[in-house]
UniProtKB/TrEMBL annotation:
Gene, per the UniProt record: aspS
Cellular component annotations (GO), alphabetically ordered: cytoplasm
Keywords: Aminoacyl-tRNA synthetase, ATP-binding, Cytoplasm, Ligase, Nucleotide-binding, Protein biosynthesis
Sequence segments annotated as region (Aspartate): 199-202
UniProt-recorded name of the protein: Aspartate--tRNA ligase
Residues annotated to bind L-aspartate: 175, 221, 448, 494
The species this protein was found in: Candidatus Weimeria bifida
Reactions catalysed, as given in the entry: tRNA(Asp) + L-aspartate + ATP = L-aspartyl-tRNA(Asp) + AMP + diphosphate
Compartmental location: Cytoplasm
Length: 590
């Protein structure tokens, strides 16, 4: 063994009885049960061992040591009289002969009890993350993360990929999120940017003649936190393949990911290849979202025409779309429905409506009085039977879809029998629009990745430029990988032709000179003979979050920032000295 121990605290078994051992770890607990007898729990990375002090001198020695101090204990292993079957070491104990304090905990009280740290306020946990990580439950998530990364790395090598690290200090480029900028001391007034993704570098590797690239890539984006998104930085399994199509990328992912999910996941079942493929617009129409959870058996139907003329204002307004979700075998209360609808409104920003078919086949509840005059027609059109709930959304198409997506998720998770939860359901979202109208700008913008190949190539773009087709109808060779309602990754067949690239950017008001200025390396490299190539980058953090069945991504990151992108433990971001600013030719203004 290394250091000053013969064994770890998770190692000793009944076969070790009689051995003299030395253990090192943290003093987790000291329970004195009588004169001259106390039970001490010693914990290290590998587990816990009970130390039984059975002399008054040894009891007093341990009593003088504060909890969470690191200690070295030398003693003899013996069989426990009262065994603990819940512990791997529960059949033995160590009777100490000597104890040495290796690192004293100078605090009589801790900010939280180690084994219950997850019950503490998150800000306290993050400030004392080094204590939080001593909690075996928290620590195990980080161990899982390491195991998953190792498995992914080995699988990529097995599939003929080569790991290449790409630069962290690079140039700013318009990739969809805000950059983190780094002032360049030797270039006053100029800045590096931390990469939002290794996108351009991995494409340049394809131009360089590398065939299959991957890395566990750090990415940096100055964006707000969510439950499944960490602010600041995250990691992804970044990959790219030369002379490849969408099918090649799908084949690798469908071979690499399911075994990892089955081996390390909370659930042992995972989708087998090939994964279901759903066009983007179909997903919005059928599920109200571009990341549906296929563990839920509910879907949406367009009932705009069916619901017209009922005399219900929200359904009769001009330009309104109406969607319906039919939930069969429904036996819940009115209170249950109201709570679900309230939660949907909070999430989606729009109120859903409902009615039900009761056990007698009668329309009841919600907007029943508007539906009853047309009950037979509506029941026949939707195939409604007894004990069925119908939840509806309305508004502009995008809002009606968004509300319905929330309806499907909320009621699908809560109504018994409509969600097969204990599995990992993968699917591909394909055929994304190349362009969209920006919510803020009101002008044509790239919908996803600006480096994607438009379907139809240059000819399609030229038709849009001439006004022969609507640019919003142009599809791109882009795809998303979704699992259990979480977007795991986006990818694309890349636009490797400079002429097509320039034309694609011209439609969003950027000239050839703009492209050359913003993407000089990529543009120039493609003019030297670029191979067709495609790639994807599943998120490591989200992957581990799903495997650990955690609701917050911060639970699987060793040292996460809080929701405001602050590191409470290290005090970052923080102020710097005037001298540092002067060296960087920067002045901070109020």
């Amino acid at each position: 063994m290394t250091q000053s121990r013969t064994n770890t605290c998770g190692e000793l078994r009944i076969g070790d009885v009689g051995k003299k051992v030395t253990l090192c770890g943290w003093l987790e607990n000291d329970r004195e049960v009588g004169a001259g007898l106390s039970f001490i729990v010693l914990r290290d990375f590998y587990g816990v061992t009970q130390i039984t002090a059975d002399t008054e001198e040894m009891v007093n020695t341990f009593k003088a040591i504060t909890k969470e101090s690191t200690v070295q204990v030398t003693g003899t292993v013996r069989e426990r009289s009262s065994k603990n079957p819940k512990l791997p070491t529960g059949e033995i104990e160590v009777v100490p002969e000597s104890v040495k304090v290796l690192g004293k905990c100078s605090h009589d009280s801790l900010p939280f009890e180690i084994n219950h740290s997850r019950e503490a306020d998150e800000s306290v946990r993050l400030k004392y993350r080094y204590l939080d990580l001593r909690n075996p439950e928290v620590k195990n998530n980080i161990i899982l993360r390491s195991q998953v990364i190792r498995a992914l790395r080995e699988a990529m090598y097995d599939h003929g990929f080569m790991e290449v690290t790409t630069p962290i200090l690079t140039a700013s480029s318009p990739e969809g999120a805000r950059d983190y900028l780094v002032p360049a001391r030797k270039h006053p007034g100029e800045f590096y940017a931390l990469p939002q993704a290794p996108q351009q570098f991995k494409q340049l590797l394809m131009v360089s003649g590398f065939d299959r690239y991957f890395q566990i890539a750090p990415c940096f984006r100055d964006e707000d936190a969510r439950g499944d998104r960490s602010p600041g930085e995250f990691y992804q399994l970044d990959m790219e393949m030369a002379f490849a199509t969408q099918e090649d990328v799908f084949a690798v992912c469908e071979d690499v990911l399911p075994p990892v999910f089955e081996k390390f996941g909370t659930y042992s079942r995972s989708t087998k290849a090939p994964f279901v493929r759903i066009p983007y617009l179909t997903a919005l129409e059928k599920y109200g979202t571009d990341k549906p959870d296929l563990r839920i058996d509910l879907s949406a139907a367009d009932v705009t025409e069916l619901m017209k003329g009922l005399g219900f204002g929200p359904f009769d307004a001009e330009g309104v779309s109406v969607k319906a979700c039919v939930i069969s075998d429904f036996h819940e209360s009115r209170k249950f429905i109201d709570k679900g609808c309230c939660d949907v409104e909070v999430i989606s920003g729009a109120k859903p409506y409902w009615f039900r078919v009761d056990e007698n086949g009668e329309i009841a509840g919600g907007i029943a009085k508007f539906v009853k005059p047309q009950a037979d027609r509506i029941k026949e059109a939707l195939g409604l039977k007894e004990n069925t709930l119908v939840v509806l959304s309305s508004g502009k198409l995008s809002q009606a879809q968004k509300t319905m997506g929330s309806v499907i998720k909320t009621f699908g998770e809560r109504v018994p029998g409509h969600m097969d939860k204990e599995q990992y359901q993968f699917l591909w979202i394909v055929d994304f629009p190349m362009y969209e109208i920006g919510e803020e700008s009101g002008e044509l913008e790239f919908c996803h990745n600006p480096f994607s190949m438009p379907k139809g190539g240059l000819e399609t773009l030229e038709k849009a430029e001439r006004g022969e087709i609507d640019p919003l109808t142009i599809m791109a060779d882009q795809y998303d990988l979704v699992v259990n309602g979480v977007e795991l990754s986006s990818g694309a067949v890349r636009n490797h032709d400079p002429e097509i690239m320039v034309k694609a950017f011209e439609l969003v008001r950027l000239t050839e000179d703009d492209v050359k200025q913003k993407f000089p390396a990529l543009y120039n490299a493609f003019s030297y003979g670029a191979p067709p190539h495609a790639g994807i980058a599943p998120g490591i953090d989200r992957m581990v979050m799903l495997l650990a069945a955690e609701d917050s991504i911060r639970e699987i990151i060793p040292f996460p920032m809080n929701k405001n992108a602050a590191d409470l433990m290290m005090g970052a971001p923080g102020k710097v000295t005037d001298k540092q600013l002067e060296e960087l030719h920067i002045k901070v203004t109020e």
